Amino acid sequence: MASTCPNCGRKLKWYEIKAECKACGVSIPNFNWEARLEEDSARAEAQSLKFHRGLSLFTYSVWGTKLRIARIILSFIPIVGFIVPWASLQSESGSVGFDLLGLFTGGRSLLALFQSFFADSGLYFTNMAYEGYSGPLTFSMLGVLFMVLTLLMAVIAFFLILFTNKKPKNLSMTVFECLSVICAVTAAVMFTRAGKAAESVTAFNFGDLPMFQAHSGVMWGFFVALVLLCVAALANLLVAKAPAKSVEELETERLAKKAAKEEKERENELRKEKERREAEAAAEEEQKRIVEEARAKLQKDKKKN
Asked: What's the rounded Cα separation, in Å, for the pair 209 and 89?
């Protein structure tokens, strides 16, 4: 219930539960209902317009042009670069492959490395402290860290494509893609330094895995991942630099498509109505022909009799 009567302005008490005002007798819920209905209709129309404009802008920003379709695909593909091997650490006593599942390098995969690290992270930090935070384990784990940051930046760039649709020329995706490229290069540098550090010592512990006469190096998967990330960054940059339609242009196109669709539906209805009438007329003609044939046959039978 309203706090005041909309007709006379009398302040209503909290215990007054009747629909009618005690002062003027007007029905408060039904007062000026036509004007309120018009206001609700106008409000609903404005919300519908806002929704359709937002939807048009979203679809255009994500896949409204061939370049934008290529951009959304190329921004997702770099995830493949984390399945292939970026580097490997080989030794006579065991090996670690810095690819997600270890499909290409054998030995302990990146996923198994994560499980081992989170199961006993203290052991890893103890080993890193023992080598003075400048040995093969330290540089290898830094390489893994920058691999994770590379993936994180790429994922953020991908979702920014969806969340920044109101600004089709936004450069934030390009910034995060460039950051992912920088992190990937830094990871490769760390893996290279880990290999040099491993070759300078006879043996060391890689967490719970002993290493003897180890050697490490960057593998072909890193270059695949780097190319994919660079292509994604270039695609985002091209989209940001390309001409973009305004909200008004998109709304004009939407209304034109809506009008064309309604016109096509109207033409279909008219065509169906015409076909229905023609079918009815044909049925009437057929019925007349049948009746005339029956009458002619009846007259012929009468003449014979």
From this structure: 11
Phi, psi (5° rounding) for residue 5?
-70, 130
pLDDT tens digits, residue range 209-232? 888 888 888 999 999 999 999 999
pLDDT at residue number 182: 96
Which tokens is 29 given? 């819920």
Residue-wise DSSP of the chain: --SB-TTT-PBPPTT---SB-TTT--BTTTTTHHHHHHHHHHHHHHHHHHHHHHHHHHHHHHHSSHHHHHHHHHHHGGGGGGTS-SEEEE-SS-EEE-SSS-TTT-SB-HHHHHHHHHHSHHHHHHHHHHTTT-SHHHHHHHHHHHHHHHHHHHHHHHHHHHHTTT-TT--HHHHHHHHHHHHHHHHHHHHHHHHHHHHTSSEEEETTEEEES-EEEE-HHHHHHHHHHHHHHHHHHHHHHS----HHHHHHHHHHHHHHHHHHHHHHHHHHHHHHHHHHHHHHHHHHHHHHHHHHHHHHHHHH-
**Whole-structure pTM value:** 0.71
Which residues, given as ranges, of the chain have pLDDT below 50?
1-2
pLDDT tens figures, 248-281: 777 788 778 888 888 898 899 989 999 899 888 8
Token look-up 């209304």 returns 255
